[in-house]
## 1
Amino acid sequence: PTAPREGRAIGTGSAFAVTTNGLAVTNAHVVQGCRTVVDDQGRPARVIASDRRRDLALINVGRSFPSVVRFRARAAVDLGETVLVFGFPYGQALGTGLNVTNGIVTGLAGPGGDASRFQMNAAVQPGNSGGPAVDDAGMLLGVAVGRLNDIAVLRATGSLPQGVKFAIRADQVEGFLAEQGVRPERGSGGGGTGARAVSAAVAPAVFQILCRG
């Protein structure tokens, strides 16, 4: 049978608003190879720019947001600091609600010593890609990008990795946005600290996106 014009869903991911007028960030691999990109309500999203090296994409969802994920004044990430990751793990298999996990920054580099990433132990599953990783004041630390391949590590070392996930550093996101002429908002918190307060502040800016082929 002929597929519907909009295509079938071939992948899902997460995204977050960086401007109130509809610009949002996700991973480049989330929107790569998509015939169309839509949010969880079926509203179309336009891919404005994609950087496969950084694994970042800027999209326009054509609607306003009540809040955005803000960047903190300093771009550094500190070992041991609190991190909360927002997103939609496993697509819609767990329902359509936003999910949040918490942990700490466990390493200051990604695979192979990649300084554009950092390591954390907050849970990241398929579907979390592109979601924001924020500090305990709700400021952006990075963008969730993936985890170690458990099976590959098991075969190579004989041991399953425990809690090894990665995020793209906020300074990489800021550099990417600057190239597109976008200046993200900064803040020093003010909305309260702790998972409950941060979740209330960040949640309105985070949404699910679907890749249709």
## 2
Amino acid sequence: SGHGFGDTNANCAEFCDHQHAFTLNDASTHTKTHPEAGSLMGCAEQVVDGTVPNQAGTWIYGRGGWCPGMEVQPWVVDITDDVTVGAENEISYLGLMDGEIWQPDSTGANVRMQSYIVYYE
């Protein structure tokens, strides 16, 4: 999720559509986006999904990956078809903003991402 915005015109990272791109074995890329970020009523429109309404400040605005009081649902991707069984597999990650590699500025804005690969035999 994105938090803060600093003094940039884009109000990043909290109110921006940051993307998280994962590539396995230089094949398929799976990208998580946040298109509701930056929209005027993005979180207000999600009250039925769990956003806590009528908070002070900017609670109504769409954010990158979260809304005030709302449970953040995991993004799940099945990468089974991307795995080469019996061989070494490599996964790469890129944090993006507007499709470009994201470079945080000195204003304290940040994007926090946690990722897990779950497998079983």
## 3
Amino acid sequence: MWPYWLLFLVPAWGVLAPGRLRARQLGWVWLCVAAFFALAIGFRHEVGGDWFIYLPQFQDTAILSVAEAATMPDPGYHVLNWLVARLGGGIYWVNFVCAAVLMWGTGVFCRRQPNPWLALLAAVPYMLLVVGMGYTRQAVALGFALLGLAALGDARTRVFVAWVVIGALFHKSAVLLLPIAALAASRNRWVTGALVLVVTALMYYLLLVDHVEALWISYVELDMQSQGGAIRVAMNAVPALLLIVFRRKLAPDATERRLWLWIALLALACIPLIPLASTAVDRVALYLIPLQLFVFARLPRLATTSQLRTTLVLAIVVYYAAVQYVWLHYASHAPYWLPYQFMPLS
């Protein structure tokens, strides 16, 4: 499992041994780091809980026409499979493209934070290793969502909506993020609300209307359970509470604060819903993981002395190292990730 710890040590090194690089040099460093993660995630071999689900999907989509692929559920993902197959590629290239989108969104989002390496470190144990390697369709949707959240933090609502709509083509659950734009709007709220309502209704009709009954039966009536779902929801609840308590210090900008307070409230709202439909709530909570990156990258702002700041940073590093250790050693699905295999060397 040492490759997973190598991935963790990359941002940890950036946190604990920060260098003084010019902006252009730092941009190249981030590009190399994103490429390193994308290669590790994309060219994994028989790694991840859904590996043997996505592989036959690729093989089935390869024999379809592009029009048939576009009518499949989550059409963006199936059209990508079709295109890669037509170009002579395999499932590894599909995974790599999805991983590249995830790392693009992660890089853009993290570099907006006051401590980018700390934000990236918070992303590694679950968002990148578990979601990135195990939930390929939601991973690429999350990548687009991160681009959207970065735009929404600057009050660029239409850009947020566009990125979320693109993400929803890869996993329909991303549609659930659209109302956040209306909630977070600080100006032209009626216009923004109307735009979001129209787009949400359209995406619901195009992507969800034919699947609502099946989703309700699977996730609610059959009481599908997600092992560890409560723990993952709790991981979002901790930064949610910190943000609510220390909101003015963690998010001085009023527009940004409004956005993330709504996300924090949504994270807390997931807690009482876990007993009703843990898997459904767990899937929705994946889109709230950026809250961890946002809050923990800012937590050192609470320190009044350099010594306390160092202590907070070290505590965050230790916390996420413990999260990764516990998941790799004790999670029921961890064997699907072990051992890590890299396709060119397998």
